[in-house]
């Protein structure tokens, strides 16, 4: 007797195999996406200094940049002007106050003093540790 089609058991086994492959792909794709978001935050960190310096010049006010475990925050006084969420897997050391910006767009140390040397930060990402060096004009070099 010839059989046409598949039995219910064969279909169930095939569905179970497909579900296993898809779930493995989903979890590895999710961790890949988290790694990519953390790596992609390095240019955002660098741009936050340029944006802070530019905003200070445009507003004619002193601003400050702070890092919390979950966000970079640009303040004017107590008002948050910009917020950049920090993705999982990315961290800045030291955290807390990072820099102050004053008109005409100068970067200063966290206490508001002129820079005698560039500011240096350690950035941790899933691929390793990077060093970010910030100049008095807000230029950031990441190595």
Q: How many extended strands?
A: 9
**Main sheet record:** 5 strands, antiparallel
Class inferred from helices and paired strands: alpha+beta
- How are helices and strands ordered from N to C? HEEEEEEEEE
Which percent range describes the beta-strand content?
25-35%
CATH superfamily: minor pseudopilin epsh domain
What is the CA–CA distance across the termini?
A: 71 Å
Shape: elongated
Share in helix: 25-40%
Provide a descriptive summary of the structure in words.
- With 143 residues, the protein is α+β, with helices and mostly antiparallel strands.
- The protein has one domain (10-142): 3-Layer(bab) Sandwich (minor pseudopilin epsh fold).
- The protein has one helix at residues 8-59, and strands at 63-67, 71-76, 79-85, 91-93, 96-102, 106-108, 119-125, 128-134, 140-142.
- It has a five-stranded antiparallel β-sheet, covered by helices on one side. A four-stranded antiparallel β-sheet has the order 4-7-8-9, with helices on one face.
- The mean pLDDT is 89.
